[in-house]
Amino acid sequence: MIKMNDITRDGNPVLRKRAEKLTFPLDPKYLKVADEMMEYLKNSQDPAIAEKYHLRAGVGLAAPQIGLSIQMASVLVPGPDNTIDLEETLVNPVIVSQSVQIAALEEGEGCLSVDKDVPGYVPRHDRITVRYQTLDGEEKTIKLRDYPAIVCQHEIDHLKGTLFYDHINKENPLDIEDNAILIG
User: Fold this and answer.
1) Given a cut of 90, is residue 22 above it in pLDDT?
2) Is 118:168 a contact under the CB 8 Å cutoff?
3) Would you say 128 and 149 are in contact if contact means Cβ atoms under 8 Å apart?
4) ∠ at Cα 66 (26, 127), nearest 5°?
5) For residue 94, what is the enclosing H or E element?
6) pLDDT tens track for 48-68
7) Residue 69 has pLDDT above 90, yes or no
8) 36 is a catalytic site residue
9) Which residues of this protein are catalytic?
10) What's the CATH fold of domain 4-183?
11) For 12-16, what is the mean pLDDT?
C-alpha cells in the first residue's frame, strides 16, 4: 500500500526527468505498481481510510511520484453524486489534440509531490484527446474536457518532468487569458 511517505517530493530529480516509455507485455512488477497507484487514489478519496493512514486526497498519481521514471499514470476523477468521471491507468499517454480554449481550476492546482501551497492559475487546454495504452497493451483514445482534461494534463506533465507551478505566470500568478474558463 502506497502511503504519503512513499510519495516522491519536489526537489527529487526523478520529478524533473522525462520518463521512459514502457514496452509490452508489461513486466509484472509494473502491473503491481499500477494496482498500487490506483489503490492509493481510491484510499485517498475514502475519508475513513485517508484519515487512518494520513493520506492526502488525490485524483491522479504518476509513476515518477513514487520514484519510477516510467510513462504510467493513474487517474480517478470523481463525478457528481458519488459517480466516477474517469478511472484509468494510462501507459505511454500522448495528447494528440487540444482545444484553443484555455481553462484553469478556480482554486489553483495542488500536487501530492508538492507540500507547499503555490497560488496561481495553471492554464490548461479545456478539451484534449489522449492516446494511450491500457495495462494489456490495447491502444485507446479518449476525449476529455473540463476537470478530467486538467487532471490528465497534470499527470502527463509529470511524465515530461514538468510540475504544475511551471505553468503559473511568475509575474502575476492570477493572470490568465480573458476568455479562459475557470472551473470551480
Assistant:
1) yes
2) yes
3) yes
4) 75
5) strand 84-98
6) 999 999 999 999 999 999 999
7) yes
8) no
9) 155
10) Peptide Deformylase (3.90.45)
11) 98
pLDDT at 82 over 90: no
Distance, in Å, from the CA atom of 69 to the CA atom of 136, rounded to the nearest integer, reads 20
Q: Rounded to a whole number, what is the distance in angstroms from the first to the last CA of the chain? A: 31
User: What residue spans define the domains of the chain?
Assistant: 4-183
Task: Record the cell numbers describing residue 107, joined without a space.
Answer: 482554486
Nearest to 180 by CA among 109, 125, 132, 112: 125
What pLDDT is stored for residue 99 in this prediction?
A: 98
Q: Tell me whether residue 158 is annotated as binding.
A: yes
Closest CA to 61 of 89, 84, 22: 89
Residue 169 has pLDDT above 90, yes or no: yes
Q: Which grid cell is 173?
A: 500568478
Q: How far apart are CA 77 and CA 37, in angstroms?
A: 14
Put simply, whether the predicted model's pTM sits higher than 0.70 gets the answer: yes
Using only C-alpha atoms, what is the Rg of the chain? Answer: 16
Annotated catalytic residue within 51, 155, 171, 177: 155
